[in-house]
Design goal:
With 379 residues, the protein is of the alpha/beta class. The chain has a single domain (41-319, 354-367), classed as Metal-dependent hydrolases (TIM Barrel, Alpha-Beta Barrel). 46% of the residues lie in helices and 12% in strands. Helix 4 (121-134) runs parallel beside helix 6 (166-174) and helix 10 (274-283) packs across helix 11. The structure holds zinc ion. Residues 53, 55, 271, 304 line the site of zinc ion (ZN).
Length: 379
């Protein structure tokens, strides 16, 4: 009995060793196959790409020149942000860049809430949008001031599902344009600084305490912000919609998936939420990778780069190249990537080429048809 037990033990060990060997061979083969299916760092420059979220608010040419040199087209977005130039000026600057570089610098407009309480607000906004669309604007952006800052004459916060917006959103849809919306904030905004998941949120909310909702418990909750946005979409199911900043659902792959399932005309943009996505990758890489593969038609590559009056060209160039290359490495390779927003490195997703083609270009060409004049779209 003793001998046969020992024999069985030896056999089990042998089988176990054999399995281990098989597993490691399979993994090596998988990695080799994945590599063949994925782009490399050497492909970055030559592939045609679109960054669907930048803010070029001056006559500066740094962003444009760097985009051209790296085969990027851009969507230059206007926003009703206090630090940005007044709306008319923003749109005029963007329209000028578009006229000078129609193949490269598509642009979006926005509107303000000025005169909200006076009769005819929506008609005046529609009048302005009509002119902006004539100049070539392909989209309209709403910002987080709706829901978090702006109030009506009675002191109530104005929310995105307010019926007063309905004619404006209907007009955008009828004109074949796209609504881009930054609604709410990352969930970190409702947490103390030391509980936030990424360094960029910690820095932003340290510098902008007025938007740090953890400090303002009297303000609506995170869930309420999301609900107002979703109510608006439920009322406007056919409106082409990009939920920028990963729909402010950056903390949960499940929530992002639920959102896309519920609203078939909505897409997500990655602007300033790469680090949150990478944080989730550190927790469960397979889950994040599967999400990008499943929703490959619904996600847009975007950065949120800004160029304004105080921009130092060399600093912007360095920043843009660092971000573009880090993002490319993360999406295309399985290497470890060190990003400033996270304290430890993240392993890249090594997504298949066809997924990258969609996230980096084809989805933008479909969602913003003919936005970049003279650049041949592939569809
Ligand atoms: Zn932005």
């Amino acid at each position: 009995m003793k001998i046969s037990n020992r024999l069985i033990f030896v056999i089990i060990l042998a089988i176990a060793a054999d399995c281990t060997q098989k597993t490691s061979t399979t993994t090596e083969q998988d990695t080799a196959a994945d590599t063949a299916k994925s782009y490399t760092m050497a492909d970055f420059k030559s592939l045609r790409k679109i960054d669907t979220h930048v803010h070029l608010n001056t006559d500066g040419k740094t962003m444009i020149n760097l985009a051209r040199a790296n085969n990027f087209r851009l969507l230059n977005i206007s926003v009703d942000v206090p630090d940005f130039p007044p709306m008319e000026e923003q749109v005029a600057i963007k329209a000028k860049h578009y006229r000078e570089n129609p193949e490269l610098m598509a642009f979006g407009t926005a509107f303000t809430l000025q005169g909200w309480d006076e009769p005819g607000w929506a008609d005046r906004v529609i009048g302005q949008l009509t002119k902006d669309f004539e100049m070539g604007a392909n989209s309209v952006k709403t910002w987080k001031n709706i829901g978090m800052v702006a109030k009506d004459k009675d002191g109530n916060l104005i929310t995105l599902d307010d019926p007063k917006f309905d004619p404006v959103f209907t007009f955008i849809k009828e004109q074949g344009k796209v609504l881009l919306s930054h609604a709410g904030e990352p969930k970190n905004c409702w947490l103390p600084l030391d509980s936030m998941t990424v360094n960029n949120d910690r820095n932003y909310f340290r510098e902008h305490p007025q938007y740090h909702m953890y400090l303002h418990p009297e303000m609506p909750s995170y869930e309420e912000q999301i609900e107002h946005r979703n109510n608006m979409l439920a009322k406007n199911p056919y409106l082409p919609f990009v939920a920028v900043h990963m729909a402010s659902l950056e903390w949960s792959i499940e929530e992002e998936a639920k959102f896309l399932d519920r609203f078939p005309n909505a897409s997500l943009d990655l602007a300033e939420r790469m680090s949150h996505t990478q944080y989730l990758t550190q927790k469960d890489r397979e889950k994040v990778r599967n999400f990008f593969i499943k929703y490959q038609d619904r996600i847009l590559y975007a950065t949120d780069f800004q160029e304004n009056k105080v921009t130092v060209p060399s600093e912007l160039e360095e920043h843009m190249m660092e971000v573009w290359l880090n993002d490319w490495k993360y999406f295309n390779t399985s290497e470890m990537v060190k990003v400033p927003q996270l304290d430890s490195p993240v392993q890249g997703l090594a997504l298949p080429k066809q997924v990258i083609d969609k996230i980096y270009r084809l989805n933008a060409e479909r969602i913003f048809p003919n936005a970049w004049k003279g650049a041949e779209d592939s569809q």
